[in-house]
Amino acid sequence: MTSGEFVSNCTADALTTAAQLVKDGGLVAFPTETVYGLGADATNAAAVARIYQAKGRPADHPLIVHIHSMQAIGEWADEIPDYAIALARNFWPGPMTLVLKRSILAEDFVTGGQPTVGLRVPDHVVALALLSAFEKIGGKGIAAPSANRFGHVSPTTADAVREELANYLAPTDQILDGGSSSVGVESTIIDCTSTAPRILRPGAITTEMIEEVTGLKVLTEATDIRVSGSLENHYAPSATVELNRTPIATEGFIALAEFETPESVIRLASPKTVEEFARVIYSALREADKKGLKTVVVQEPTGNGLALAIRDRLLRASKGR
Ligand code: TXA
Ligand code: MG
To answer: Where, by residue number, does L-threonine bind (predicted)?
Structure first.
């Protein structure tokens, strides 16, 4: 069964309807600047349970609660340190999730039973309009993981969401189309429950940016906080992903434009910059599966910042499903 109404024209009316659908317990997949999310009312246990079902995700993995502005941070979190406020002021809306001590509003079904809650204000007109419309009808926040089946590559287009989830959504659920995600890899997740920030998942907001804004050194020692996106194998296509070797005939190849394509190798992407690399990596991995390739070789970008986030995802993708 294929379901999930496809809304390609995000008019104000369409967004009001989508917000009401979320309020009524439905699921709405929506674009963000990082990847597409699969959203439900973060205060509705039954609706959130449907997210886990659609994704095939274990119920003890926490979801990020998306809010319209940093004004709502105090509704969802308690004991917010000053450095977290500084991060929110500087980088929201944006590709950053703050993990904070949860308030009573953040229940076990959304935090996976953890004493913390992940919060994010996404930087995408459609996401912000949806969140704003949801707030106007009394909504508090939209819980949304990436809109893919558990362990798979995150979707950066509405079509990719359909490929992943159409068979698992109800006919009344919706997929909002807001074009291709401009960042392309998931948000930086920052644990804000210690005296200084700690990165749980690297992304476009980098260590350097965090240290500059907070005046604090980012903690690097190990933590026992669970992050499902940090499972060894995650973000994986069906094709086997192999890193940093010369591709041979009939294999797929993803690398910066400066790397040439060996003969009869199938070039899947030639980004010119690290930013473009992040933007296209997931759609290029999906393309490998569409072409039925067995192996895709990726030449990783070097350096810190966003390149580090790309290498983090590729390492996990290379562990397979
Ligand atoms: O860019 C993003 O973050 C996208 C868009 C849709 O916002 N969302 C996303 O969600 O990547 P998801 O569920 O695929 O990955 C979120 C990660 C999970 O690994 C989850 O374990 C972690 O965030 N997380 C959420 N709340 C947490 C918490 N309270 N403590 C620790 N980790 C948390
Ligand atoms: Mg995910």
So the answer is: 34, 66, 120, 187
> Does residue 146 have its Cβ closer than 6 Å to ligand 1?
yes
CB-ligand 1 contact for 117 (6 Å cutoff): yes
The predicted-structure confidence for 33-69, as pLDDT tens digits, reads as follows: 999 999 999 999 999 999 999 999 988 899 999 999 9
Residue type, 195: T
Q: Strand pairing partners for 6? A: 175
Contacts of 163 (CB under 8 A, 6+ apart): 155, 286
Please give the distance, rounded to the nearest whole angstrom, from the Cα atom of residue 13 to the centre of ligand 1: 29
Report the distance separating Cα 237 and Cα 319, nearest Å: 10
- Asked if 110 and 143 touch (Cβ cutoff 8 Å), the reply is yes
Burial 119-130 (b: 16+ CB within 10 A, else e): bbbbbbebbbbb
Q: Tell whether ligand 1 has an atom less than 6 A from the beta carbon of residue 189.
A: yes
pLDDT tens track for 118-138:
999 999 999 999 999 999 999
Q: Please, what's the b/e burial string for 9-31 (b: 16 or more CB within 10 A of its CB; e: otherwise)?
A: ebeeebbbebbebbbeebbbbbb
**Inter-axis angle of helices 207-214 and 82-91, nearest 10:** 120
* Domains of the chain (ranges, CATH numbers): 7-214 (3.90.870.10), 240-318 (3.40.50.11030)
* Class of residue 94 by CB neighbours under 10 A (exposed 0-12, middle 13-18, buried 19+): buried
Q: Which atom of ligand 1 is nearest to the CA of 230?
A: 19
Give the residue ranges of the chain where pLDDT is below 50: 1-2
Sign of CA dihedral 245, 250, 256, 260: positive
